[in-house]
Specification:
The protein is of the alpha/beta class. The chain is built from nine helices and ten strands. The relative contact order is 0.13.
């Protein structure tokens, strides 16, 4: 009996040496409700919800995931982490719009976060890129937010873009630092662009840029294109002489419109 007891003790010590089970940590965190917020960067004050690159005020509420923490502790890839953030932001915005509320209880938000984490871990995509190999990204902010004006949209200029052969040589995707996915979908409908079947990708998937010391630059969000459009040939269409330095990361070619 003494020998059996020693063997059990050795087995248990060996198990503990392997480290805690990540799934068990998730369950514990959900039950305790105390560690959930560590996965996010602090929310920005209302007056500071500004995009420097888009020259606009961001009206929709955004939660920005701390990518390093989530990758390390929840064992998600960068692409999966971006999908999680996108799915969470879109889900919360839809709930607020449907129920006509401005705030969602933190406990409910936490529950949604873990549900979406589970889906992402199983391979579900909340933004599913076009299947076509070549992508034509069209940055709409310069047409929708001209400096000095708010929500003044140059409809004719955007429509003219969709007559260009180089744009239509890839599957068009409208992207924005200023607008949500829902707002971009409204642009597609209001301008009768359904015939060219553009995808839309709003600011829900952008992530804060870091400086050389690793500090967050909250007004400088970026699109991490390689982790969104995986194994795609990406052409980015922007107005001539646009300053997009640091706003887009990845392998892409810039085309003037």
């Amino acid at each position: 009996m003494r020998i059996i007891g020693i063997l059990i003790a050795i087995y248990l010590s060996g198990c503990s040496a392997l480290g805690p089970d990540p799934k068990r940590i998730l369950i514990q965190e959900y039950n305790q409700g105390s560690l959930y917020l560590k996965y996010f960067h602090p929310n920005r004050p209302v007056w500071d919800k500004i995009s420097d690159i888009g020259s606009c005020y961001i009206e929709n509420d955004l939660s920005f995931i701390d990518i390093d923490t989530v990758k390390k502790e929840l064992k998600l890839k960068l692409s999966e982490t971006l999908q999680l953030q996108y799915g969470l932001n879109v889900k919360l915005q839809k709930l607020k719009k449907f129920y006509k509320i401005d705030y969602i209880d933190q406990k409910e938000e936490e529950k949604i976060f873990y549900e979406l984490t589970d889906k992402v871990s199983s391979g579900i995509l909340f933004f599913n890129p076009p299947s076509y190999k070549r992508i034509s990204l069209i940055w709409v902010d310069p047409f929708y937010f001209p400096k000095g004006a708010k929500k003044v949209f140059k409809n004719s200029e955007l429509k003219n873009i969709f007559t260009r052969e180089d744009v239509l040589s890839g599957h068009p995707v409208l992207i924005s630092f200023c607008l949500s996915t829902d707002e971009l979908e409204n642009i597609v409908r209001s301008n009768n662009l359904q015939n060219v079947d553009p995808f839309v990708l709003g600011n829900e998937i952008t992530t804060p840029r870091k400086d050389e010391l690793g500090a967050i630059r909250p007004r400088e969000n970026i699109f991490l294109l390689n982790s969104i459009f995986i194994n795609k040939e990406v052409n980015l269409f922007v107005p001539r002489n646009s300053n997009i330095e640091g706003a887009f990361e990845g392998d892409f070619k810039v085309r003037s419109i």
